[in-house]
Structures are given as structure tokens and as C-alpha cells.
Amino acid sequence: MSEIADLLPDLVALRRDIHQNPELGFCEHRTAARIAAELRASGIEVHEGIGTTGLVGVLKGTREGTRSLGLRADMDALPIHEQTNLPWASRTPGTFHGCGHDGHVAMLLGAARVLAADPDFAGTVNFIFQPAEEGQGGARVMIEEGLFDRFPCDRVYALHNWPGLPAGTISTRPGAIMGAADKFRIALVGKGGHAAIPQDSPDAILAAASLVQQLNTIVSRAVPPYAAAVLSITEIHGGHAHNVIPAEVMVGGTVRTFDPAVQDRIEERMRAMLKGIEASFEVECALDYDRYYPATINDPQAAADALEVAATVARAELAPEPAPTSEDFSFMLQQRPGAYIWLGQGTQGHAAPLHNPHYDFNDGVMETGIRLHVALARHWLG
Ligand SMILES: [Zn+2]
Ligand SMILES: [Zn+2]
After folding, report:
1. Which one, of 92, 122, 116, lies nearest residue 18 by Cα?
2. How many whole angstroms from 354 Cα to the centroid of ligand 1?
3. Alpha-carbon dihedral of residues 57, 58, 61, 66, nearest 10 degrees?
4. What CATH number was assigned to the domain covering residues 180-293?
5. Protein residues near ligand 2, an ion, with CB under 5 A
6. Under a CB-based contact definition with an 8 Å cutoff, are residues 126 and 373 in contact?
7. Quick one: CATH architecture of 2-177+295-380?
8. 84-141, pLDDT tens digit by residue?
9. Is position 379 annotated in a ligand binding site?
10. Residue 99, annotated as binding a ligand
11. Which three-class secondary structure state does DSSP give residue 352?
């Protein structure tokens, strides 16, 4: 694997260039152009403009084969002001690669170079560079625009750097690895009126107070104790004067789950409670419940294969539990069997968490990430 070591200085420079020039979701024009140029320089066929800025590189092996593999990297940055003071820190104030997607791009481009230089495999590798992972669902948009129809993949993998896991350790698990993320907004609508004449004005404030209490019983009373879920109410807006009963109060928050049945149960209980609130307080309730990212569910066989392959390139370990954060690779895993894999970023030096202004991708794990991508391809298309 010495050839990977030879590529590293170039790939580290590329990673830092992308870091210095971060772009938010669906605006990754410069990043996508750099990726397209790199892929073409490796002799890889490039298809651009899938999901706005998304692109796919297609590499066929020299041996006859019908299997196909998708390897995905996300490209977008976050709306955070970087505070690392590194020489390659963001040049765009308020925009920052705080989730290491710059590193994901560099690792997948490295794997593309290695595989293109020695395409001794049977079948096709699709290098998927997706936009807008951070909350905007770029993966879903690429799928809606025909990603898997145009570029068949009978297995998909994605690698995400993972602070807190020892540098270079590779970890994944069968089943749920990341949570589903839902957000809700509830409008409680009364009439509005004088605070001294409560009999004429349904009290949306009191209704909201009761609702907050009731919603906080869902996880403890309606979700099985062996399942995991979080419901957090994070917003209440309403009222502006001491002598006015407001006409409307808004209550909002988030729900995180790992099992679609639990997710369904929570939404169902919320809707039932709103009917009770309407009857009790004479207000009207309007619920906007948005399931924006589903849970990321690994195929058991794909996860087992990933761990087996990972053990040939680095230290591999079964992840004991899923993470409560979410990931839009979940949409790809709803379409195709595959697995989401964590690459340890380090416990010291590179321990700043994802989305923290002091975070930086650890270039020291880049070689391991490239080797894993290459080994996954050679294994599935062997
Ligand atoms: Zn992120
Ligand atoms: Zn990320």
C-alpha cells in the first residue's frame, strides 16, 4: 500500500484547500468542480448536476462482473464561525467544515485514484459525492433525481470520521447506527382577550403549559423501556402583555428515535394528546410534524462484511450502541443494503466534537479511510 502513502501529501493539500473554501448545502459549486477535475484526471467517467451540485464518478473493473458498489462522501460545510486559527482555516466567515466532510471528499478521491490505477475487479464502483447532508437531505434529492436508476448499486457504504473513537479505529454495527430526527411545531389557537375576563377567552398559555407536561410523559409511558427515544420541547412562544390573554401560543421541539415503530407511536400519542387539549381548554391545535431524517439502519450482512474488511486494514470494533445524531445516508440505506461506518478521529489532539468551532479533520487517519474504501470495493467486486 505504499502507493497510498505517495498520494497523501497531494490529498492532504486538497483536503485543506476544500477546508479553506467551504460551501454550504446545494452551493458546493467550487468543491464539485474540483472533485470532477480530480476524477477526470484519474480517467474516471463523471456525471454532474445530480441534486444540484451532486456528482457521480463511474469506474468499471477490468474483469467481467455484474455487481456494483456505491461509495458515498458528503461535500457540504456548516454555518459556523471557525475558531481553530489553523493556517488552512476557512476564508469564508461563518462557513466552516465542522463535520469533516472535507476529509470525506479527500479520502474518497484517494480511493478513486488507487482503484483507477489498478482496476483489477469485477463490476462497477460508483463514487457518489452528495451535497447538503447537514439537514437539507441532499441524499434524498439525488435519489429523487434517479441516482440508483442511473447508477445501479447493489451495495452502498459511507464513511464518517468520529471524534472520541481512537484514531484509525473503524467501527460499525448491524441495525440502527444513527437516530431518526423529527421536528414538530404545535400552534395552540384561542381567541385573545382581556386577562380579567377569562371566561370569554380560551387560555392558550394554560393549554400550552398542560401540553408540555403531557408530551413529557410519552417517552416514559408509551415507549417500551427497552427501546430508546428522546422528546425535547425546545421552544414556547406566546404572549406580550400582563393584561392580555394571547390568541396563540407555539410549542416546538424534536423527537429522536431508532425504530420506525417507536417513531410512529410517539407521533400517534402526540396527535391524541392534542385532541384532549382541544377538549379540555377550548383551543384549536395545529400540528406540523416533520420527519426530516429517518434512522440510519445498517444491513446486518453489509455491516458484518464491513467489519471483516476493516480488520484487514486497521483495528475494527463492533459499535456497542447507536448515536442519537442523524445522517441523511439513511435515505440511501432505505433504497439499498449497505452500512454507515465510523472512522476514529482520535481521543487526544483531535477530540473536538463534530460541529464544534475548534474541530478539524485529522489528516492522520486519511490513509486508513482510503484503504478501507479500496478494500470494501475489492471485497464486494472481488
Ligand atoms: Zn454534521
Ligand atoms: Zn457529517
Report:
1. 92
2. 6
3. 140
4. 3.30.70.360
5. 99
6. no
7. 3-Layer(aba) Sandwich (3.40)
8. 999 999 999 999 999 999 999 999 999 999 999 999 999 999 999 999 999 999 999 9
9. no
10. yes
11. coil
